[in-house]
Design brief:
five-stranded antiparallel β-sheet; 21 strands; eight-stranded antiparallel β-sheet; single chain; 441 residues; 25% helix
Length: 441
């Protein structure tokens, strides 16, 4: 195996960690990487879209999985597809959407691997209706730290299945997976956008269209007291007919702008323009799945917009009672965030460390600057006080105590790790930061 030492970060461009990395193209090479010797622990890394440090391994090793990306089998009658876990959702959509089949759950970008989607049990704008990604996985094959490959389903080994779905890569490396694709009538959605003046109206609108497949709200994080939670609610249902979708040619951010470009003044101006684009009476339009589900994918490298210092995302699920204190603390900070999203979440999945649970998902990006870590600490406390939890795929600041209190199935998860990885070969910067195995390996 060829190993190369390089610096890696999460999508938020922090924290950086120097690791030995290899990029296998065959399972035999993957096994050699898994069982070979080297510095520190090892963790899989897909397309690097996890924001924090769950796919960063300072002082250890990384196995890059994006070349293990083959389509293995497809059953047109059932809609089940078997793929190598390094394949991206982008590739699946390009192949199957023109055939009337849709990846059932998509996060905010299509540039994630199937393995990463399982390991983070990602959710989308349809979680209230369709659950998280793991709910649509029939089985997966997992390479254990010993090099053995085992096929795991809910029936064959429910504990290992539930520890791997949302388990941030700590049970092994997913090598293949069987997904159930969803049938859709066309390549488009009927999208309805409605401006709302405050939080009460926002929550009412989110639940108003019971039949909608997708729902999401953007809110103005700088809005004052009487307008707290004002924003725009978007809902979408499948269109019965196709539309002509011009193939998107993503643009790249040409330079990394200075961090000072993002400040309360520029964010306030952006929020006013973004809010004004939707008429007071709302509007309805036909939109391709890509444009609705992945608006940020049209600008490759958008994470550079936050400058060289990068950014931190806060994403948690809380009950409605926690929204006012969360939003007030965010507004008081004047930290500013272009991305401020709220979603209604459905039932919890079975994953031991899965993020989704009933409540409301709140997500904001903050430029990384003095005071942000303290702000995220306050938001963690509010989340914890209300029985919520922080999303590990987006996190870079959660405390070990907060993590253990939020993820109450951690003892069962640790039992599985002791069974499949007694020598503690797998680990990441996140697993050490959160002291998941007592700070080691």
């Amino acid at each position: 195996m060829m190993w190369k030492t390089a610096a890696f970060s999460g999508w938020g461009r922090l924290p950086y960690g120097t690791s030995e990395a290899t990029r296998p193209e065959r399972f035999s090479q993957l096994r050699a990487a898994m069982t070979g010797s080297g510095p520190g622990s090892l963790i899989a890394r897909g397309l690097g879209r996890s924001y924090g440090d769950c796919a960063v391994n300072e002082g250890g090793r990384l196995v890059m999985t994006e070349r293990l990306d083959r389509l293995v089998a497809f059953d047109a009658e059932s809609g089940e597809v078997v793929v190598e876990a390094g394949i991206s959702l982008r590739s699946l959509l390009d192949v199957f959407l023109p055939r009337g089949l849709m990846v059932p759950v998509c996060p905010g970008t299509a540039y994630v691997t199937v393995g990463g989607a399982i390991a983070n049990d990602v959710h989308g704008k349809n979680h209230e209706k369709d659950g998280a990604f793991g709910a649509h996985v029939a089985w997966f094959e997992l390479m254990l730290p010993s090099g053995e490959i085992v096929r795991v389903s809910r029936d064959s080994d429910p504990a290992l299945f539930d520890a791997t779905v949302g388990g941030i890569g700590l049970t092994g490396i997913i090598v293949t997976a069987c997904l159930r694709l969803a049938r859709v009538p066309s390549n488009a959605l009927i999208v309805r956008e409605r401006p709302v003046p405050d939080l009460d109206a926002l929550l009412a609108r989110l639940h108003e269209e019971v039949g909608a497949t997708y729902s999401v709200a953007w809110f103005d994080a700088l809005a004052s007291d009487g307008n707290l939670g004002r924003g725009i609610v978007e809902t979408a249902t499948p269109s019965p007919t196709d539309i002509r979708v011009k193939k998107r040619s993503p643009k790249s951010l040409p330079v990394t702008p200075p961090s000072l470009v993002l400040n309360p003044l520029s964010v306030r101006a952006f929020n006013a323009l973004y809010r004004a684009r939707v008429p007071a009476a709302g509007r309805e339009s036909l939109r391709g799945y890509d444009a609705f589900l992945f608006p940020l994918d049209s600008l490759l490298g958008w994470n550079r917009m936050y400058g060289k210092r990068g950014f931190r995302q806060f994403q948690s699920i809380v009950p409605a009672a926690a929204l006012v204190p969360l939003l007030e603390r965010i507004r008081e900070s004047r930290a500013g965030s272009f991305l401020a999203v709220l979603k209604a979440m459905g039932p919890a999945g079975t994953g031991m460390l899965s993020f989704p649970m009933p409540g409301y998902g709140v997500a904001l990006d903050f430029p990384n600057k003095p005071g942000i870590v303290e702000l995220l600490g306050d938001l963690e406390r509010i989340t914890l006080d209300h029985g919520g939890r922080v999303y590990l795929a987006k996190d870079s600041c959660l405390s070990p105590q907060g993590f253990a209190a939020m993820y109450r199935r951690l003892p069962a998860f640790l039992d599985v790790l002791e069974r499949v990885d007694p020598q503690r070969r797998l680990g990441s910067s996140m697993s050490r930061r959160l002291a998941i195995r007592g700070g080691a390996p």
